[in-house]
Amino acid sequence: MKLLKLVRILCISAGLAVALAGNAMAADFSKLIILHTNDTHGFDKHENGSNGMAVVSQIKKDLKKQGYDVLLLDAGDAIQDNNLVNFSKGKTAIAFMNAAGYNAATLGNHEFDYGQDILAQRIKEAKYPYVSATVFVEATGKTLVPPSILLDRKSGKIGIIGMTTPETQVSTSPKNVYGLKFVEKEELYKTIQKQVDDLKAQGAELIIGLGHMGSEEGCMGNRSEDVLANVKGIDIFIDGHDHKEKNRDINGSLLVETGHYTKNIGKVTLQNGKWVGELIPFGVYSVEDMKVAELIAKADKEVQEKLGQKLGTSRVTLSGARDPGVRTQEMPLGDFCADAYLWQARQANVLKGPVDIAICNGGSLRKSLNAGRITRGDLVGVHPYNNQMYVMKITGKKLLEILEAATSTIPDAMGAFPQVAGMKYTINTKVKYEPGEKYPNSVFYAPAKPGSRVTINSIGGKPFNPDAIYTVATIEFIAMWGGDNYGGLTGKDAKIDLQSIGYVDVETFENFLVTRLKGKIGKRYAKSQNRIIIK
Q1: How many other CB atoms are found less than 10 A from the CB of residue 370?
Q2: Taking the CB of residue 434, how many other CB atoms lie within 10 A of it?
Q3: Which CA distances in Å does 476 have to 174, 182, 283, 364, 459?
Q4: Which of 15, 185, 368, 445 is the most exposed, having the fewest neighbouring CB atoms within 10 Å of its CB?
């Protein structure tokens, strides 16, 4: 009996010791600070409202000196858009992020814009891991990059799960995502839940979703909110893609996003047992890490030398704002773009006949064209994708279908929004968009009733004829690949004819400005030209 009692005492003592040891090793996130960025798009220099990477780096350094455990994360779209990174195809963006000390990043849709081979090089150059659980290589069934990582920090074990919007299939040229599968909706939720469960089984005490998903209505079912509504166990969700500021709780999880272009730097801390998000806006913290600043200045100088040539002047500013802006309504910049497309296609005359209209999707316009001196770099900044220009012949019925689909979420923003020349059309937003069949390799749906929301008022000043054949000038992204919500152009017999005109989009801009406008953008583009009516 004495022996049994002794064994019981020893067992109780051992259990108490294990419990005490466990408590001693428990996570303490009170000194953890999570800094985060999203949709930086190469706006990495400290200027014009952008904090830039040198400020991001210095904030991290200063917090570490104060004794904090600092985690620096990016939610995608870092390597493409601004001229500062475009000319190196994102290589400079990776160098800046390496220097700033990022700990992890996820893949945004624009990480794919240079093609998979270039993306593989950029990932190899990064000194931090890229993670995404939602992009699979069809040939192997494995994810393109690791789906998640488990970081053993001094604060505790932190699991980070990457997510990439399935909208990538239509927001970059399909050739850039050939052979890849982007999981959606129920499969998306199941995939992320498994990652959460696996990380917790490995001892993760904090789960972070690092998602480039967004909250746009057109992506219903694949948004960050949808993930949080259907997946249990995510403590913090750092979002990107839609360029919005977010800081709210959803089902006990904190959802945060900074907006875009490093205008804000995100900061998440644990306060009174609750995760709290805040933003560090431009101007609040102006101290830069000089080593990172020098790296950026060197790259900027090289780019400016290439792009500094003056091409003309503008008497007005053509705004490239997104929402409200080029993705929601007719804008002077959209008129300028479509006019350039139409003029260049008519000059090329590759189909030996009239070119009736031009379509420029609002999502391809990335920056405002400011009043004053216009350089080659300014035009590249507005239209950075180097898309080949095409002309295609389609029926009036097909034209009506693609306009209906490309405006399906209006008044909510849509990258497909058709800025046009040579035609006028009306969108009746009081009529609900009725989806039909899903377009192949797309997240979007064809209209069940083309013409229920959109009315084509005229083409070339003449009444619209659904049975007529029209020649349309646009970019490869739309004409060849049905990008954004132009999936109606990819089906069998969707196009009667298709030809390249031999120019890329930014060359078209340059030629239109220099040759047609004689280097001067005048008051004609001071306001929109009533080509699109929204009611």
Answers
A1: 15
A2: 14
A3: 11, 22, 40, 12, 22
A4: 15
